């Protein structure tokens, strides 16, 4: 048998490959694989490990999971995933897809520049807000298309999710005092214990409403690239069904957590709000604290496991130890109670409400609820489709504002900051929000945006790529029907001249 170390040395040799190679070959290492960068192609070799949550211990298992990885990732990253190849041995010679005995399997991928990874773009300061908006839509569309069935939904049982999270705690107890504090370990575990006790019905609802799907499972920035003018999701989990058959919010939480770990909560907020806007899954925000903490904890575990790998250098181990501690702290932070609050936007179309709301959402890490999105989800039409007159009838407008308030109260009462973004030009609509906020002791501020009428007309007529259907000819009617703030409302109002 050829040793794994011998294979690694052979794969570092440019002469091993039947195509031109960029020398020296760069080798990347994760806790479960090696990746060899040869120039045009990258080759992924799985480590012969059994870590409990994955088992690559035999040649046949590595063959199976190489094939699984190819089949799961080709549909979402066809430009990257190419083939599964054999490494063969004939006498003393090893070859790629050669003659002789098969001694290993390896995944062949198209190599893309490491600078196109979102993780590298974040470090370089080139990760833009518009790219995160596109990513939110990309993940939303991915989740809407990915499959679900009775078998997959079984993995959404609260008991199954709880057992998986508790397994993480069991596997990392030995790192208490080394990479994590005992008090925070206990507090984090206590939070998840309470969450399962208090939110059993919610988790069952997520299971029955098709929120448990065949997701990505590992959707952090190192597994997303922006290459060939496309956002490409790759390295979808192939080795563990419970990691892949999960709530869609499990995937979303990984990306949000990774951005927040990198001190870019603003970008995480943009991604989250665009995802929610395209899916309409605002109720899913209720399970985010559980999954945010879980994802941070998993990254802590992954870094902790590197401390036990004899193939990892001491320098790498020290960096992994420091990162693990940071992730454990973040996992604990997500379990801490927060104070919910409301901002109610108010103003005519084109007054800058949504622009101001987006900026506030980034600054406050708030959930941004746009009436345009809520209305179209209620009507069952795509956000990018134009709505006809039926979705703007008074009864639909009433349902839209009721739904806005319903979601807002649901989330704010659980500690989320929420921005209700609509015209709120009628006293009755505003009073409903004020009454609920006062009843639930939720802090409230009304943000009134205005600009001269000619500016509003110009802004509305020049809109492109926005989900709003407002047109300039509606403005006069809106202005005529708008009701001034009452004396009681004035106490909540902050006015912003968006043309100043």
TrEMBL record:
InterPro entries xref list: Cell-binding_unc_protein (IPR052732), Kinase-like_dom_sf (IPR011009), P-loop_NTPase (IPR027417), Therm_gnt_kin (IPR006001)
Family matches, as Pfam families: AAA_33 (PF13671)
SUPFAM superfamilies according to UniProt: P-loop containing nucleoside triphosphate hydrolases (SSF52540), Protein kinase-like (PK-like) (SSF56112)
List the GO biological process terms.
carbohydrate metabolic process
Residues in a coiled coil are none
Which keywords annotate this record? ATP-binding, Kinase, Nucleotide-binding, Transferase
Catalytic activity entry: D-gluconate + ATP = 6-phospho-D-gluconate + ADP + H(+)
Alphabetically, the GO molecular function entries are: ATP binding; gluconokinase activity
Q: In which pathway does it act?
A: Carbohydrate acid metabolism
Q: What is its EC number?
A: 2.7.1.12
Q: Which Gene3D superfamilies match?
A: 3.90.1200.10, P-loop containing nucleotide triphosphate hydrolases
Report the family membership.
Belongs to the gluconokinase GntK/GntV family.
Q: What is this protein called?
A: gluconokinase
- Species source reads Euhalothece natronophila Z-M001
């Amino acid at each position: 048998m050829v040793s794994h170390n011998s294979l690694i040395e052979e794969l570092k040799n440019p002469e091993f490959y039947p195509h031109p190679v960029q020398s020296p070959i760069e080798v990347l290492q994760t806790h479960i694989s090696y990746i060899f960068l040869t120039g045009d192609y990258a080759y992924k070799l799985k480590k012969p490990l059994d870590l409990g949550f994955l088992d690559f211990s035999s040649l046949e298992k590595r063959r199976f999971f190489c094939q699984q990885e190819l089949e799961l990732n080709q549909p979402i990253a066809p430009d990257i995933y190419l083939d599964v190849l054999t490494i063969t041995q004939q006498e003393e010679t090893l070859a790629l897809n050669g003659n002789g005995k098969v001694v290993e399997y390896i995944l062949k991928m198209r190599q893309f520049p490491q600078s196109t990874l979102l993780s590298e773009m974040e470090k370089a300061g080139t990760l833009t807000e518009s790219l995160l908006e596109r990513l939110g839509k990309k993940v939303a569309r991915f989740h809407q298309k990915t499959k679900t069935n009775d078998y997959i939904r079984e993995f959404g049982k609260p008991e199954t999710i709880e057992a998986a999270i508790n397994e993480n705690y069991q596997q990392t107890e030995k790192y208490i005092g080394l990479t994590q504090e005992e008090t925070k370990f206990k507090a984090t575990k206590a939070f998840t214990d309470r969450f399962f006790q208090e939110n059993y019905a919610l988790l069952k609802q997520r299971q029955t409403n098709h929120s448990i799907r065949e997701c990505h499972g590992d959707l952090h920035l190192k597994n997303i690239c922006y290459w060939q003018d496309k956002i490409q999701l790759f390295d979808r989990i192939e080795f563990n069904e419970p990691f892949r058959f999960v709530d869609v919010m499990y995937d979303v939480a990984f990306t949000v957590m990774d951005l927040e770990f990198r001190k870019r909560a603003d970008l995480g907020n943009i991604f989250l709000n665009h995802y929610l806007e395209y899916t309409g899954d605002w109720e899913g925000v209720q399970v985010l604290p559980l999954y945010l903490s879980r994802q941070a904890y998993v990254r802590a575990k992954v870094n902790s496991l590197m401390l036990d790998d004899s193939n990892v250098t001491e320098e790498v181990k020290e960096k992994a130890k420091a990162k693990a501690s940071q992730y454990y702290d973040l996992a604990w932070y997500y379990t801490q109670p927060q104070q919910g609050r409301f901002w109610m936007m108010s103003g005519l179309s084109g007054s800058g409400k949504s622009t101001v709301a987006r900026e506030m959402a980034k600054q406050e890490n708030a959930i941004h609820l746009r009436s345009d999105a809520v209305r179209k989800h209620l009507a069952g039409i795509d956000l990018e489709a134009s709505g006809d007159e039926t979705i703007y009838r008074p009864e639909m407008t009433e349902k839209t504002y009721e739904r806005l308030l319903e979601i807002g109260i649901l989330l704010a009462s659980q500690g989320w900051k929420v921005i209700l973004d609509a015209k709120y030009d009628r006293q009755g609509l505003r009073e409903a929000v004020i009454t609920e906020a006062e009843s639930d002791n939720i802090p409230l501020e009304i943000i009134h945006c205005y600009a001269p009428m000619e500016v509003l007309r110009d802004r509305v007529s020049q809109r492109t790529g926005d989900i709003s259907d407002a047109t300039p000819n509606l403005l006069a009617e809106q202005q005529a029907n708008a009701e001034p703030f009452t004396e009681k409302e004035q106490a909540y109002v902050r006015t912003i001249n968006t043309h100043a």
